[in-house]
Amino acid sequence: GRLxxxxxxxxxxxxxxxxxxxxxxxxxxxxxxxxxxxxHYIAIMAAARHQCRYLVNxxxxxxxxxxxxxxxxxxxxFIPPKLRNLNEINKILAHRPWLITKEHIEKxxxxxxxxxxLAELVHAVVLLAxxxxxxxxxxxxxxEQDEGPGGRGSLKPLSPGNQCFCEATAxxxxxxxLLRINRKRSLDSCMxxxxxxxxxxxxxxxxxxxxxxxxxQQDREEGEGQGVEVVAAEHCSDxxxxxxxxxxxxxxxxxxxxxxxxxxxxxxxxQDFARRDEDQAQVFRVQDYSWEDHGFSLxxxxxxxxxxxxxxxxxxxxxxxxxxxAKRQGCEPSVFKRGIWNYIHCMFxxxxxxxxxxxxxxxxxxxxxxxxxxxxxxxxxxxxxMFDRFWKQFKHSEKVHVxxxxxxxxxxxxxxxxxxxxxxxxx
Length: 427
Prior knowledge:
Blueprint: H1 5-10, H2 14-29, H3 36-48, H4 53-65, H5 81-84, H6 87-95, H7 102-109, H8 118-140, H9 175-178, H10 187-203, E1 221-224, E2 228-231, E3 284-285, H11 291-302, H12 306-319, H13 323-329, H14 333-347, E4 350-351, H15 358-363, H16 366-377, H17 384-389, H18 396-426
Parallel strand pairs: 3-4
Antiparallel strand pairs: 1-2
Helix pairs in contact: 2-12, 3-4, 3-8, 6-8, 7-18, 8-18, 11-12, 11-18, 12-18, 13-14, 14-18
Main location: cytoplasm
InterPro entries: AhpD-like, Sestrin
Subcellular location: Cytoplasm
């Protein structure tokens, strides 16, 4: 009867949880341009970019329950070309969204028999951004890790056979009830889970055991535009090393065994938007293209009502109370939250002309900045030591709040680049 780990963590902020669940349910289970099995496969592709086994396993089982072809779970070489063609923008949005162009959009929309419709592509882009950002929350709050002595509480991931959190709501306010109700599994659902496990074990090949991720190495400082001190990107080890089955307490395989099969070009990862030894990349200026004035109307027109749900979620995280966190820094809550939000957008090359970026260096301690950058840019490298070290005076609910800001700021950044490219294609 354990609660799903993501829902449990977001439950520290029930109003936000309601908004998140409505959006998740709409994306995965309500009417939309994409077939239901494709939605879950796109989620698998997105989560695999950050080696998020927790989300991959969850969506693998949901994919099968939606009637998906088990052969697709053998990897990208076994899926329809139309879906496989999405891999390029999945890779770019996940790691360097500023590289996406109208040419990427045009290629997907004009590939003869494998072409995407504009509405399908918008649905897919929202799914990709949603799942990329959610991997940051999953790693940032420890949902990928087993609970243990000295751990962060009840953060052990559920067996993927439990109810998917995106099925937990039909779009109404139910978070309080979710936090009270124990989940029950009938004999039928247990038999279904066993059947799915057997099918997956026949499909996947065992890989080497998981190796522990390296701890974040000693950071070096680099300046990045307008006086913002942005912690430098780390040189990461091969992301395919140590991929292994997720086993339950009995050692039984419960999910995908080889995440590498769901992605191409695994060495492609985040790089600092502007490096001293490279030419200045084109800065994305929000006064030229913003969510409020441009992105919202475009996405809502091509994928009905999703714009309202996303906008509500952005506003909800902005409205969360953070007076205690801000008080410690001697500033107003809105100032503190905007500092975090703008720092995240800065790492993706998004700038606000009306903001003094010197405030970021004053508001955010170095360890907090290291944590934010890791969870945002390469969440798979987050570890419990980092979570425990960043601002020890934070309450757990406040750390969850920071991770919600990371989730939403990252998602909006990806959407801004993708929707701008779509707009440029349409023009």
